[in-house]
């Protein structure tokens, strides 16, 4: 879903036709399964991938926290922070909006 934009007409809910189609498929699958609208369906592979990325992020944060208790050199701090940024990957693409897709 896209953030609300200041423009004429109804705000766009999806970035493109593929996203709109995935949302429809999810709504259809949850309705067929008798699940509530607030349920989000993901594949096991998607969930495993997200959990792996979150674990990497947690480890990178712990590394930075440990380094900050020491007296790191500028190079050590830069390397640790670069690892932290790299571990976030594209987590921003996983943002879920609480807004209902009609």
**How would a crystallographer describe the biggest sheet?**
none
- The span between the termini is 12 Å
Number of strands: 0
Describe the global form. Answer: elongated
Q: What share of the residues does DSSP label as strand, in percent? A: under 5%
What's the number of helices? 3
Number of domains: 2
Q: Find the structural class using helix and strand composition.
A: mainly alpha
Mean residue pLDDT: 81
User: Nearest-angstrom radius of gyration?
Assistant: 19 Å
Unreliable stretches: 97-102
Could you spell the SSE succession in H and E letters? HHH
Helix content: 55-70%
Short overview:
This protein has three helices and no strands. It has 102 residues and is an all-alpha fold. It has two domains: 13-38; 43-91.
């Amino acid at each position: 879903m896209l953030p609300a934009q200041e423009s004429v007409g109804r705000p766009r809910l999806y970035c493109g036709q593929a996203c709109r189609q995935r949302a429809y498929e999810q709504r259809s699958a949850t309705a067929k399964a008798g699940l509530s609208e607030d349920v989000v369906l993901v594949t096991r592979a998607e969930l495993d991938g997200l959990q792996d990325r979150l674990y990497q992020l947690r480890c990178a944060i712990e590394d930075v926290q440990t380094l900050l208790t020491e007296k790191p050199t500028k190079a050590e701090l830069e390397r640790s922070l670069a690892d932290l940024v790299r571990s976030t990957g594209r987590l921003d693409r996983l943002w879920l909006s609480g807004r209902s897709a009609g």
